[in-house]
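*** Protein under study ***
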Amino acid sequence: MIRSLLVIFGVLVLAHHAVAEEPRPLGKNCDLDSPPPASGEDAHMYGGAFKIYPRAKNIDGNYNGCQVVWRSSGENIDNWSLYVVFELKGEELVQAWMPIESEYSHSKCKYENGQLISGNTNHCFKPERVPVKSMASGCLSGLLAASYDRKAQLPKGCLSYE
């Protein structure tokens, strides 16, 4: 009886390690769990609203760390959940990490010299699109307000991505 339980326990331990997710990247900004006030913003018709930190315009060839993206939860643009962490060496994408493993997880996407070297090409981010460009902080709420009030001014600088 005890021998059977030990065998079952061993199988469960091995199974857990087989499906364990990749570790979250380490480095500057990699451990952020919520978007800082200076986060850039973006929105997509089918993907929802996003906060991005740091903004692409603040990442140069000397940057070593992560660009973090959060996604709005539902229709509330004040409730953010971690979506993806891009590990960067300079402006080059090294890996994409997601907190939740799924069939379409990007956590197994690894890059070298601007090329995908590990992961599914149909599900991994295109390296030329990272770091992700964004609108300035505050643009989403300003554009949302302007969409409901035709007399409202569009926020300045919110139609450019950098």
About this structure: Residues 1-20 have pLDDT under 50 and may be disordered. The radius of gyration is 19 Å.
